[in-house]
Amino acid sequence: MSTRLPTQSSDFPAWYGEVVRRAGLAENSPVRGAMVIKPYGYAIWEAIQRELDGRIKATGHENYYFPLFVPVSVLAQEGDLVEGFAPEVAVVTEAGGKKLEEPLAVRPTSEALIWSTYARWVQSYRDLPLLYNQWANVVRWELRPRLFLRTSEFLWQEGHTAHETEDEAVAETLTILHDVYADTVESVLAIPVLRGRKSESERFPGAVDTYTLEALMRDGKALQAATSHYLGQGFARAFDVRYTARDGSEQYPYATSWGASTRLVGGVVMAHGDDRGLRLPPRVAPQQVVIVPILGEDDHADVLQAAAAVADELRAAGVRVRVDDRPEYRPGFKFNEWELKGVPLRIELGRRDLAASAVTVVRRDTGDKQQLPLAGVSGAIDGMLGDVQTSLFRAARDEQERRTLRDPSSYDEMIEYLRDARGFVVAPWCGDAECEARVKEDSSATIRCLPLEEQPGQSGTCVCCGRTAVTTAVWAQAY
């Protein structure tokens, strides 16, 4: 704890790695590219999971579970999926001391196995829609791993639905994008996001359209927070999933899939953290309040009793609270530790506070310190937690806006901005893949999304080639 963190401005990757390690979120495992999620990091993931799961179920979906292993022959039935994930797929060829008759892929995603099963579940229009989700782990062999952001194994949820009509399936993907993902990321994680479609080159393998949420981190790079895919009838055709329609004809259902992962934990770190460590939004913080008793020579019992009473009052009000009464550590050490861990509010309670019938409260987001009366403290704390949640979202939104270059005056200006990873560039695009590839070659940036309410730039010409623009694109370097 005595060694200062690297600063964000001097070495953001080193800062991120040290915060994840020192705050007790995760560490590398003996398996290259895989991580051990520690209790504090897992508690953040559990909070995210609860919020997502509640919204998923509120939109009419049920949870189920499918196996980790997929027969290679099943995976091979969907050509685009195989081609898209081939470099990342891990394959088991031997088990129980014997060579397997058929190799098993460790799932990189579950569309193939699930749609091969839906062939048995769907016979009639009366069986539709299928509205299902699973919480699982997946494996994608990652060449350049980074804790939470890109790991060979990660945790996520993946929804897989089947519908009678294209309109119903597209509406499903947008409902998930807005009502489940965007609402969770913005209202719980306090991270503002852009909502849009992926360009053809950036779509999920096998998708007709991929919808995405793109967030901007404090180093100017984008993070794909969640995706929702309209899959058309491709998977139904590949796995021969057919049903008898209302008019008696035989039809293929329309599919969607959608997912969000433990990458969101890394997003919380990078969207809100500062040079002292994490700054957690209260709605996702494992502990929203930490109480640090300031103990003198002869007032241990009174101070500890008062701290316990405050904690009980806060818990009764639904606040997640911890009393840090560890005798082996001094208050200053505890202050630094809980600042690093990003606890939204710290309550200091000592002899002077008791004499004044008050507590001292410190906000992690701003560092502001104030005294609150002991009487009715839970109401005041609840209001402060709401203020911290709002403040973090506004700060992240302001940072995103500050780092967004709209309608650059020239291609060179755009490339310089992107090459330096200063943030988003919003500019008109002709839709040509050659222009998209040129920008990537010149700057390492990709099109993060085509905003859902697409408007060509004021100039009406592509920033890359000068031809007529057909849409607006958002570029950035990304994780």
Walkthrough of the structure:
The protein is of the alpha+beta class and 479 residues long. Helices cover 35% and strands 27% of the residues. The protein has helices at 12-22, 39-58, 72-75, 79-85, 111-121, 166-187, 234-238, 263-272, 300-316, 331-340, 351-355, 377-402, 411-419, 433-443, and strands at 26-28, 35-37, 62-63, 69-71, 90-95, 98-106, 130-139, 153-163, 194-197, 209-216, 222-232, 243-244, 250-251, 254-261, 289-293, 321-323, 345-349, 358-363, 369-373, 404-406, 424-429, 446-451, 471-476. The strands form five sheets. The protein has an eleven-stranded mixed sheet with strand order 3-7-8-14-11-10-9-22-23-21-20. A five-stranded mixed sheet has the order 16-15-17-18-19, sandwiched between helices. A three-stranded antiparallel sheet has the order 4-6-5. A hairpin with a 5-residue loop joins strand 18 (358-363) and strand 19 (369-373). It is globular, with a radius of gyration of 25 Å. The model has no long low-confidence stretch (mean pLDDT 95).
